[in-house]
Amino acid sequence: MKSRLLVLGLACALLAALLPACARTPQAAPIPGPTPTGDLTTIAVAYVQALAKGEYATAAALSEAKMNQAFPAAKMQETWQALVAQFGAFQKLGGTRTEQQAPYDYVYVTCEFEQAALDAKVVLDVNRRVTGLWFGPHQASVEYQTPTYVRSGAFSEQELTIGSGPLALPATLTLPEGTGPFPAVVLVQGSGPNDRDETVGANKPFRDLAWGLASRGVAVLRYEKRTKAHPEQLVAIKDTMTVKEESVDDALAAVALLRTTAGIAPQRVFVLGHSLGGTLAPRIGLADPQIAGLVVLAGATRPLPDLVLEQTAYLANLDGSISPDEQQSLDEIKRQVDQINDPALASQTGTLLDAPISYWLDLRNYHPAETATAVKAPMLILQGARDYQVTTEDLEGWKKALSSRDNVQFKLYPALNHLFMTGEGKSTPAEYDVAGHVAEEVVADTAAWINQH
After folding, report:
1. What is the DSSP annotation of 245-287?
2. Residuewise pLDDT in 10s, the chain (453 residues)
3. Which residues is 269 bridged to in the sheet?
4. What residue numbers bound the domain in which 425 lies?
5. Is 427 among the residues known to form the active site?
6. Considering only CA atoms, which of 323, 339, 188, 327 is closest in space to residue 253?
7. Residue 316 domain-assigned (yes or no)
8. Using CB atoms within 10 A as the burial measure, which of 12, 134, 209, 302 is most buried?
């Protein structure tokens, strides 16, 4: 059976329907008809069922007016077809769960496709109408098991807040036991609306890193990504958004917060970025020359649109053949990648690969390895050899630019995947559904490198 799953950790939105379709202010538009009946879960389930059955008028009747403008029937059909092309035939709806973040209610509806389970995040406004929709990896209800390399009692945790006002981010500081001051590291996630643990399927790699590093004397600050904590507020800048708003600004704010936090050595604050976070690490380091050092885990050096196409082709060809639906999806992604690479992009508006044109224009002018040459701080660059999302070709890009530097170290782990977890054979997205932990060797190498500096 062929495996298809999300292209993880590359940009704020890379494949149709895997990130915000839209989100609206509940008071912004008139109600297009009678208020939907039933509880919020019933309304959300009915909405997703309507999409699955192609009953777009029914879905529209459950939505507020501006949602319908941004997500008309043609877009609904395109979104659902893209999901089916990537994850196989739709099977059934699964369980639900709810969250509230006033003035919105969130209902997560599990959608079981032939090759994967996704969570549809349906956002409902104060009028009980659908005002936003996301699709993302299904978050399995698996109890987290502490890695064996974590030392019980070696650290404590406290809640902090990064920034202030409507975009403030909840954060967790993991602080080693003792008097300190301790070296500290800010963890910067990959793409998408990640939580502070960078939860992927059954795994929490950033919790592994935080507890593992703190067990070895390194304080760690991790936080909810802005696209996770405040997706609705980002709608106001959806046509101008770049990685600056998605990741860079908040990483810099987290570094500044650590420098003023009791128990932290202000001159020994590091940044560790994974995937997109690793790709952006040189940009973060260049913006703040006082950062003590950068740790890059699976950071790309090649253009992100090209990696999207490469990853999609890899997944489609896992069983040695590509179906007509998969070929159609590949052709569409290639068409959009060609548009992104077209010099005429600067005169265009709208979105490509579900990210605004502004996002791609900004990244077009950013070259991670080249930027890294201007960063004087030491760097540790780590790569899993089984990673199909960011590959050894990207590691070679870092080496080509930085191998002459005596304060830059590289390491390749033969058995590790994109999450730096152990496996065998060709890596597939199915690995992310199996509970595991960041390899102890990665934690030990990172802690030793930070403590050396």
Report:
1. IIIIHHHHHHHHHHHTSTTEEEEEEEEEEETHHHHHHHHHHHH
2. 233 333 333 333 322 222 333 333 333 344 456 678 789 999 999 999 999 999 999 999 999 988 898 889 988 988 888 787 777 789 999 999 998 877 889 999 999 988 778 899 999 998 999 988 888 777 776 788 999 999 989 999 999 999 999 899 999 999 999 999 999 999 999 988 899 999 987 899 999 999 999 999 999 999 999 988 887 777 778 788 999 999 999 999 999 999 999 999 999 999 999 999 999 999 999 999 999 999 999 999 999 999 989 988 888 888 788 878 778 878 888 999 999 999 999 988 888 887 889 999 999 999 999 999 999 999 999 999 999 999 999 999 999 999 999 999 999 999 999 999 999 999 988 888 789 999 999 999 999 999 999
3. 184
4. 155-301+367-452
5. no
6. 188
7. no
8. 209
Residue 288's CATH number: 3.40.50.1820
Regarding whether 172 and 124 lie in a shared domain, the answer is: no
Instruction: Kindly state the tokens that stand for 152.
Output: 């019980």
- Are 384 and 448 members of one domain? yes
Residues 175 and 40 both lie in one domain: no
- DSSP type of residue 96: E
The reply to whether 29 falls in a domain is yes
- The 3-class SS string of 129-165 reads CEEEEEEEECCCCCCCCCCCCCCCCCEEEEEEEECCH
| 387 included as an active-site residue | yes
Catalytic residue among 63, 247, 275, 329: 275
Residue 46 sits in a domain of what CATH number? 3.10.450.590
Grouping H, G, I as helix, E, B as strand and the rest as coil, residue 3 is: coil
Q: Domain count of the chain?
A: 2
Within a domain: residue 4?
no
- Whether residue 129 contacts residue 62, with contact meaning beta carbons closer than 8 Å, is answered with yes
Q: Please work out, in degrees rounded to the nearest 5, the angle formed at the alpha carbon of residue 309 by the alpha carbons of 357 and 195.
A: 70
The question of whether 418 is a catalytic residue gets the answer yes
The active-site residue out of 195, 418, 427, 437 is 418
Q: Which of 387, 394, 427, 437 is catalytic?
A: 387
- The pTM of the full predicted model, rounded to 2 decimals, is 0.82
Largest CA distance in the chain: 68
In a domain? residue 147: no
